[in-house]
Amino acid sequence: MRRITEETIIFISVFKWFFIATCVGIIVGFSTFAFLYILEWGIAFSTQYSYYYLSMPIGLLASATIIKYFAPNAKGHGTEKVIEAIHKRYGKIEPMVVPVKLIATVITFMSGGSVGKEGPCAQVGAGLTSIVADLFRFNDVDRKKLVICGISAGFAAVFGTPVAGAIFAIEVLFVGAMMYDVLLPSFVAGMVGYQVVTALGMTFPYISMDVINVVQSNSLFFAAALGGVFFGLCSLLFIEFMVYCEKLIKRYKINPVYRAVVGGFALICLTLIFSTEYLGLGEHMIMSSLMGEDVVVYAFLLKMLFTVITLICGGSGGIVTPIFFIGATAGSAYATIFGLTRPVFAAIGRVSLLAGAANTPIAATIMAVEIFGSPIAPYAAVAAVISFLITGHRSVYPSQVMAFKKSASLNIQLGTEVENVITEYERRKRSLVDIVWGYCTKIKEIFGKHNPQG
Questions:
Q1: By the 8 A CB rule, do 141 and 88 touch?
Q2: Distance between CA 122 and CA 388 in Å, rounded?
């Protein structure tokens, strides 16, 4: 009798969340399509003018002002605020965040701001699901699940990666852990959201990496592993640069108006010096890298600069698309320097930067398979995991909660948000490195006794 009751409850729970997640996928799918349609129209309208980016100071100022007075939680790149809401408020998001985030992001893009489109979709999806939870009086635990489903559907609908979107939503909350109790609804919401936008006419590029079958060798695996180190360092540089700039803003308490105007003029100057390729989504440069075309080796550094200035000076938008740009161009630069196949390493770099900067190696690896095909899987996996480790206990999402240590030799307090993590070296048992170091010290002491003047 107990087993019958247990199986019945589980069956009802599965049916309940399958239905709820399907509804979430439909809602977020339609809202994402509407947002992307408006965004494409806005970008097409502004970019028909050659010097549209001259409106950057006004655009950043307008975005910052709208967010400040109508919905402060819409500030930044979107996903970060959703993670914070899940951990601190059981996913409770103010309804005003939805329209404010949409308007501020469209304004930022129309003026040329270097941001992404996934953050607003995730935040809007989470905001809509939070409203639904209020309407149907969901408890706190179910509200949290519902909001996570909103992230999954938004991410999957934007990038056309339903499985990676589902995994990203449950992997991005913690560093080193996933919420398996949300796995089923997250998958369902991601798949339904993806199906909705494709049914409405949205298409996503699939770039086959069949060239790997030709160049496949043991050296490619080790080149990918070494590339993982490089991409991890790029992730670390991006995160640290953003954190440093935010600290400067807080230290000197720069007025948001001055910040927006100065940042806008700085971006105008940078655009005149380099090009408009680093404004907006930068999808043309991403595709050029993936097709193996010539890309300047410092392109990833410029994209970091454009993105950080946009975000800290009042711009609104996501951060994953700039990460894709940085990763793809960094991969192209890495391949150019070492004489490797540029399309392959641009693809590996694109997902490895996401793994390192967002602490999502599993989602990044699955995304590589969904976009580039299965031949790239082992190489993307090793590069993504190494990048994830090299980045250390840092993230572009400072509200992520630490669930494990990336090295046993480091002492951190688990359960702490990334922005509050203090890392200390911890020596416990004697490792092989400790033993070798001890022998080297003894040898030095012996030679020192025999040669006191040396």
A1: no
A2: 22
Determine the Cα–Cα distance for residues 247 and 260; give it in Å rounded to an integer.
Answer: 16
Kindly indicate the confidence band of residue 438, based on its pLDDT and cuts at 50, 70 and 90: low
Ranges for all domains in the chain classified under CATH 1.10.3080.10: 2-199, 211-391
Instruction: Count the neighbouring beta carbons within 10 Å of the beta carbon of residue 119.
Output: 28
Element housing 79 (H / E): helix 79-89
Look up the pTM and report it: 0.90
Place of tokens 């970091």: 304
Q: CATH code for 211-391?
A: 1.10.3080.10
Longest dimension (CA), the chain: 86
CA distances from 410 to 34, 58, 135, 289, 423 (A): 46, 46, 46, 37, 6
Residue appearing with tokens 């919420």: 179
Provide CB contacts within 8 A for 196, sequence distance 6+. 25, 26, 29, 30, 33, 157
Element (H, E) at 107: helix 97-111
The residue length of the chain stands at 454
Nearest to 318 by CA among 58, 82, 47, 1: 82
Quick one: pLDDT at residue 254? 81
What is the tens place of the pLDDT at every residue in 18-73?
A: 999 999 999 999 999 999 999 999 999 999 998 999 999 999 999 999 998 888 87
Give, for 425, the enclosing helix (H) or strand (E): strand 424-425
Which H or E element spans position 402? strand 401-402
Q: pLDDT digits over 219-236, tens only?
A: 889 999 999 999 999 999
Average pLDDT, the chain: 88
Phi, psi values for residue 54, rounded to 5°: -70, -15
Closest CA to 170 of 180, 162, 161: 180
* Integer Cα distance of 273 and 53 in angstroms: 13
User: Tell me, what DSSP letter sits at residue 318?
Assistant: B
Q: Which CATH superfamily is domain 2-199 in?
A: Clc chloride channel (1.10.3080.10)
